[in-house]
Amino acid sequence: MTPTSWRPSVAGTGVLADLAALDALEEELLYVFVGCPSKGEVVATALPQRAGWIVVDGAVVDGESIALSLVRRFEESGYPAKVAAFVLTHPHDDHVGGIPQLLEAVPPEAVWVTAAQPEGPHLLQVCRSMIARLRGLPTSKQNSFRGVRAALSALAKWEEKTGRALGCAVEGQRIEIRGTPVSLDVRAPKPGSDLDAILAELADGHRHRANEASVVLEVLFGESRLVLGGDLPRSKTPDGASLPTGWDTVMTDHPHLAEHVLLKLAHHASRAAWHDVLMAAPPSKGREWTVTPFSSSKLPRDDQMTDLTSRQSPIRVTHPPPAWAKFTGWRLPAVELRSRREAEPTGDAFADAADDIRPVRARSVMAPIWAMAYRPDGSLAGLWRGDGTVEIT
Known about the structure:
Elements: H1 3-11, E1 16-18, E2 30-35, E3 41-46, E4 53-58, E5 60-61, E6 64-65, H2 66-75, E7 83-87, H3 99-105, E8 111-114, H4 123-134, H5 139-143, H6 146-162, E9 167-169, E10 174-175, E11 183-188, H7 193-203, E12 216-221, E13 224-228, H8 247-253, E14 262-264, E15 288-291, H9 305-311, E16 315-317, E17 331-332, H10 340-343, H11 349-352, E18 369-374, E19 380-385, E20 390-392
Parallel strand pairs: 1-19, 4-7, 7-8, 8-9, 13-14, 14-15, 15-16, 17-20
Antiparallel strand pairs: 2-3, 2-18, 3-4, 5-6, 10-11, 11-12, 12-13, 16-20, 18-19
Helix pairs in contact: 3-6, 4-6, 4-7
């Protein structure tokens, strides 16, 4: 399909189309691609004025990097294969897929990780310590960490190859992007003793608080504001006390983030990451919410989608979690969502008491992707879906 066949009907009006129809990028628009097959998460933003890509985290389909596949796909139609900035939000296995492939094939101009200051502690130093500790553990323990280990090794190789240092991604830091009207600001985590304590625990091999050090990004293109929430929680539990590095602090310091046109919901739409101010009534110009599933944590929860859609409709999910019952088509009202064990009983009491958390196989590397294009006035110029995505209303 040629570019002229889709621009008038899709990019000009915001009409939903298949992602296969998007084979070229217009210079005056900001494109954002959110991808996740059911484990892994990547947000790839193609900047206006052909200024390159911002890539956040990583995900793979059958070992193929989603981000690298996007870069190569649009390189064929003339968009430069340049990564202006890569950001790793935090060192968890479901956010690191395909990072070595991307950094090797298209070395970014800048790489950013959670850090308080250049001399540390930052994630590369922390994970080197984690890797050293793992060498003395059984192979099974080492294997559980292999994805993060590969990603962090790729960051170290990037430093050696380019002679550049990792950027320190903490609240208040602006990531400079040349040749574009787009700004990129870090809104979390907040530097201080709490962040230092989390990094120290990571260095000791304890990753259970890594989400609390997750990077949150604000991408601004005129009046088009994108909020990329990483896995940052508000509290440890849905009804627990707020975290010093969490969403309560972020929204106290940056309440304007509520006026977004796109929100990548934090932590796969876990209720512990919901924030009432951030998720308040939509602005008059409209907005999009995307969700990336994480099968092994049974996220997003089918019984919470009705509440989510009361705040925003539709919710764009990159891939149906295996714990959800199978349904026909790709659009479904939240009130009709059911868990598979309730809707499809096997008759085996043991099996019917459990949720299916096995990753669902994506049809192709482009299948679990939602794509949006924005004008600088905040309006949606185009909307595309991969053939594995779902829309919950």
